Amino acid sequence: MTIQLPSRITFEGPDTVRKWGDAVRLRREVEAMTFVQRETSVPVPTILEVYFDDQSNEDKCWILMERLSYLEQLHHLRLADAGVIGSVSGGAAFDHRLSNMHTRGPFASVADFHDFLVAPVKQSPRPGTFAKYRAQFPGTYEIRFAHAELSWENILVDASTGKITGILDWEMAGFWPEWWEYRKALFGSRSQPWWIQVLKPSHDGVRTRNRN
Length: 212
Fold this sequence. Notes:
With about 210 residues, this protein is an alpha+beta fold. Helices cover about 30% and strands about 20% of the residues. It has one domain (about 10-210).
C-alpha cells in the first residue's frame, strides 16, 4: 500500500502546463497518457518532460505537458494479461473511490475486485448482508481501459466548433470492470441530467447488464 500526496498544476505559458505532486500517482498518469497516445487517436496532452526528484522527502515529480486545442477507442484497448484490473503497466491502481490516498491491487479478476469493494460489509452484524450486496456485482463484466475520471471538468472543447480538443487528468486511468467508467463519470456533483444524456449512448449495454 502506497500513501499519495495531492497534485497541483500551473500554466507555464499559452501552450504548456506543469503538474507536480506525488510520484506514484503521477507515474500512473504518465503511463496512461503514453499508452493512450501510442494506441489511439484520442487527443491527450503530449508529455514534454518528466522529472522525478529522488532526493525529495515528499517524493514529488513534475510533468510538463503540451495543452491540446473518443471514448470507444479507449474501451477497446487491452493488455496482454487481459484478466488484470490495475494500471496500464500491470501494477496497482489509484482511485479515490477505493482509497483516498492509497493505491490498491492489482486484482487478478473482476470477481476479486468486486470482493474487495464489498469486503467492509462483512463487518455487518446482520446475517446475509454480505451475500445481499455481493450479489449485486455479477462476474460477467469485461475488463476495459477506462479514463476513470471522465467529466466535463476534464474535457477541453473548442467553443467555435464544439469539437473536443483534449482530455485531461489521467492519473486514475487503467484497466477496470466495464461499468466503472460510467459510474465514475456520474460520481458526486457530475450527475447532472444533461451529462447523463451525453453518457447514455456509449454505455447502454453496460447499464442494461448492471440493472439485470
